[in-house]
Amino acid sequence: MSKKIRTEEVDHLFDAILxxxxxxxxxxxxxxxxxxxxxxxxSQRFEVAHMLREQKTYLDIAEKTGASTATxxxxxxxxxxxxxxxxxxxxRLEHKEKE
Length: 99
Description:
Organism: Roseburia zhanii
Order of helices and strands: HHHHHH
Protein name: TrpR YerC/YecD
InterPro entries: Trp_repress, Trp_repressor/repl_initiator, TrpR-like_sf, YecD_YerC
Radius of gyration: 15 Å
Pfam family, one: Trp_repressor
GO molecular function: DNA-binding transcription factor activity; sequence-specific DNA binding
Oligomer: single chain
């Protein structure tokens, strides 16, 4: 993990996020913390990652999400060479769906 983001301020933000109890609280908090465009960009990247894991083509992903090929490429790089954060979350979500 990059040491550039490991700061006391980021720790406080993550502690705040971890304190949220449900999706409604997430909406309340993130609408205050992020601009609409920031939140939509984050959700777009998450959807792009999901579609890349499903082996969708860049064209399919761009059409469905509106993401640029540069964004799709960046997310793909994170999936292939990042810290496996996307994989960790997707595996947990898949496990939760099976329960």
